[in-house]
């Protein structure tokens, strides 16, 4: 025997071992009774007994009804903290900017980003525009903490923070937005 034949011999041995019927109950004869396959075999779990209906008929078994489709559980809805009643809503701030003639292009309500699945900032409301992003927090302390984090790229008034980090608003135009926010209180 040469070493070139060893891989072929190994494959042949594996094939023989697999076809030998390891653990099979049938004797290999063509007339043997088929064994119970693992697909049709009970799983070892108790099956519920079907209770007869009031008219005496027994309902069909679970196997006769088919398999129950299992769907993954959906995540619970994000519950955002309430904004203080003394603070304007983010939408109200954006509308005030628009009424004052300030640019607020492409407003998008991204309040879901406030919660644990998003940025996790803990805000109550969030509306992003191309000019400025308006955050409303549940309290002034939270708003102050975030405004400090963003440094000179934000403005805080009460529970509302204007963020200019991703905005296209020049530093010269920012005081106009801040003046409108001051007038909302």
Structural account:
The protein is of the alpha+beta class and 185 residues long. The chain is 26% helix and 10% strand. The protein has five helices and five strands. The chain has helices at residues 6-19, 62-65, 90-99, 140-150, 174-183; strands spanning 108-109, 125-128, 133-136, 154-157, 160-163. Strands 1-2-3-5-4 form a five-stranded antiparallel sheet, sandwiched between helices. A hairpin with a 4-residue loop joins strand 2 and strand 3. The model is unreliable at 37-41 (pLDDT under 50).
| Beta-strand share of residues | 5-15%
What structural category characterises the helix and strand content? Answer: alpha+beta
Q: Please, what is the average pLDDT?
A: 77
Using only C-alpha atoms, the radius of gyration works out to 34 Å
Cα distance, first to last residue?
95 Å
SSE string: HHHEEEHEEH
Number of strands: 5
Reported for the largest beta sheet, the result is:
5 strands, antiparallel
Helix tally equals 5
The stretches of 5 or more residues where confidence is low (pLDDT under 50) are 37-41
Biggest β-sheet: strands ordered side by side in the sheet? 1-2-3-5-4
Shape: elongated
Helix content: 25-40%
């Amino acid at each position: 025997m040469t070493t070139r034949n060893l891989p072929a011999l190994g494959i042949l041995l594996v094939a023989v071992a697999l076809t030998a019927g390891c653990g099979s109950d049938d004797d290999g004869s063509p007339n043997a009774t088929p064994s119970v396959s693992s697909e049709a075999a009970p799983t070892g779990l108790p099956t519920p007994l079907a209770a007869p209906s009031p008219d005496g008929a027994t309902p069909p078994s679970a196997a006769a009804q088919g398999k129950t489709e299992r769907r993954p559980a959906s995540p619970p809805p994000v519950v955002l903290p309430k904004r203080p009643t003394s603070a304007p809503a983010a939408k109200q701030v954006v509308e005030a900017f628009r009424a004052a003639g300030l640019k607020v292009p492409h407003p998008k309500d991204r309040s879901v980003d406030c919660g644990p699945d998003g940025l996790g900032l803990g805000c109550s409301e969030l509306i992003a525009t191309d000019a400025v992003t308006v955050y409303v927090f549940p309290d002034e302390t939270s708003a102050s903490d975030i405004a400090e984090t963003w440094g000179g790229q934000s403005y805080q008034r009460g529970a509302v923070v204007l963020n200019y980090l991703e905005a296209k608003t020049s530093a010269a135009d920012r005081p106009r937005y801040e003046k409108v926010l001051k007038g909302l209180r």
